[in-house]
Amino acid sequence: MPKVPPFEPARPTLTLKMLNDLRQQAQRLKMTGIEREITNLLLFEGYDLRWAMYTGTNFASAMGGLIERGTVVVKHALHSLEERGWIDRGVNGDGQTYVELTTKFIAACRLAWQRYLVRRTVGAVRWQKCNGDGAVADLLHQRALGRGRGSYKDRLKSVADAYIDGVERRQNSGWVSHPGRVGKKPSQGGNPTLRLIAGERKSGA
């Protein structure tokens, strides 16, 4: 009976430009310091987003030596990354243990970078007036894509201004829109803070 090789998750094929973009995008992803050291090792020194060890090597111990971290904390970081679906671990056909970054990690990096570009383009003043967060960044991005004229940056600033107008009108009227709850906020002094996301009640802005 032929020997069945160990299962190896499909690895994304990246051009050099795509890899360099991913290295930049990954720096905007929220991670602990050790998680970042591990992912950076795979991004900058791995082969096709994968790092393989010698046969029989304890991966956490070997990686801990590379990044000068204790085995226990490296194990915790690897487990955390694996729980989020950002890395896969296994054994290749040569019996080497390996860890590799996944398509889910790539998608998370691109989303974090997209949100960063929205914040940077909109500017600190507009972003503060938007009560900005990840959901707001995604909403502004989608609205900007839906406008056909002008550059993306100009469209993004325009939809941000329209969004701010809607926020200020609701603040002045005391109307609050939250995920799953729409109504008047009890008076506690000052204007209520709004969170307007996709699925919000349309303001006509």
Tell me about this structure.
The chain is mostly helical and about 200 residues long. It is about 50% helix and about 10% strand. It is built from 8 helices and 5 strands; from the N terminus they run ααβααββααααββ. A 3-stranded antiparallel β-sheet has the order 1-3-2. The chain has a two-stranded antiparallel ribbon with strand order 4-5. A hairpin with a 5-residue loop joins β2 (about 85-90) and β3. The radius of gyration is 23 Å and the shape is elongated.
Compact overview of the structure:
This protein is mainly alpha-helical and 205 residues long. It is 51% helix and 10% strand.
Biggest β-sheet: strands ordered side by side in the sheet:
1-3-2
- Taking Cα atoms only, what radius of gyration do you get, to the nearest Å? 23 Å
Quote the beta fraction: 5-15%
Number of helices: 8
Helix content: 40-55%
- Count every beta strand, where a strand is a DSSP E run of 2 or more residues: 5
Broad structural category? mainly alpha
Which runs of at least 5 residues are low in confidence (pLDDT < 50)? 1-9, 178-205
The largest β sheet comes out as: 3 strands, antiparallel
What's the pLDDT, averaged over the residues? 82
Q: Which oligomeric form is depicted?
A: single chain
| Morphology | elongated
Order of H and E elements? HHEHHEEHHHHEE
Distance between the termini: 68 Å
Descriptive keywords:
205 residues; two-stranded antiparallel ribbon; 8 helices; disordered N terminus
Show the helix and strand layout.
Layout: H1 16-26, H2 33-44, E1 50-52, H3 59-67, H4 71-83, E2 87-91, E3 97-101, H5 103-122, H6 124-129, H7 134-145, H8 152-173, E4 175-178, E5 181-184
Antiparallel strand pairs: 1-3, 2-3, 4-5
